[in-house]
Amino acid sequence: MSESQRHETIAQLLTERAFASAKELQLMFKVSAATIRRDIDKLDEAGLAQKVHGGIAALDGATRPRAVSLPFIENRDIAVEAKTAIAHEAGKLVRDGSLIIVHGGSTCFRFGQHIANRNVRVFTNSMPLAGYLSEHGTCQLTVGGGDLHREPGILYDPARGSYEFYASQFFVGALGVGTDGLLESHPLLVRFINDMCDLSNEIVVLVDSRKFRERPPKLALPFSRVTRLITDDGLSDRDAAMLNDQGVTFTVAQTKAGAA
After folding, report:
1. Which parts of the sequence belong to the HTH deoR-type domain (predicted)?
2. For the segment 95-121, what is each residue's pLDDT rounded down to a tens digit?
């Protein structure tokens, strides 16, 4: 495939989703990492897309009718600074001795790492987080059982009855954020999120600012159920205004780049 064909394919991809990672594009086109970096640079210089950490993003206002969930192992290494800042901010909300639920996903994984040695009991459906806490943490750990959904690394059993506990807080991420609330692409994730919300006193949403450009098809959680949303300082003025208009209490975590 020629350079111009790759550029056309990438541009088309970014009309369907807000972000494509460099690694994903390298595998898609079967070219070197250096070639993809040059492609990204040229698309950015031409004003056709925006070069971002880990890959390339659609310009604000571009058409994005759907979003695709990346595998956890790949998504984990995207926007690390933003996710780490969000995790530190979320850690301030955790009360010692409490029971908290931590959902799957890469931002919640960073949060789980941050509170691994706190005096808390953690319930999670995330295989990667459970593995990390088992090996490196001192907190009490309970893992939700069920079928493994490999790409997000999440366990879920749709046939299971209700859990017999009530949590102080449910920390949850999302594939996207729209004007109505949190958005997801998989109906089982939507169901699990709502199940856990029913078992929690507070619902704390952890999403990096890229997620405001994603538009998955399913509403997972309306803003009316959200206690607090934490994002990073890449949040646009437009998205901040949208959150204010929806009455959402939110915190902007400062990254090193944003603080400089």
Report:
1. 3-58
2. 999 999 999 889 999 999 999 999 999
**Has domain 3-64 been given CATH number 1.10.10.10?**
yes
* Surface-to-core class of residue 161, CB atoms within 10 Å of its CB (0-12 exposed, 13-18 middle, 19+ buried): exposed
Q: What are the boundaries of each domain within the chain?
A: 3-64, 73-259
Phi, psi of 182 (to 5 degrees): -80, 140
**What is the side-by-side strand order in the sheet with 218-222?**
176-177, 181-184, 218-222
Distance CA 148, CA 155 (A): 5
Angstrom CA distances, 15 to 12, 48, 57, stand at 5, 11, 10
Q: CA–CA separation, 96 vs 118, rounded Å? A: 7
User: CB of 96 within 8 A of CB of 120?
Assistant: yes
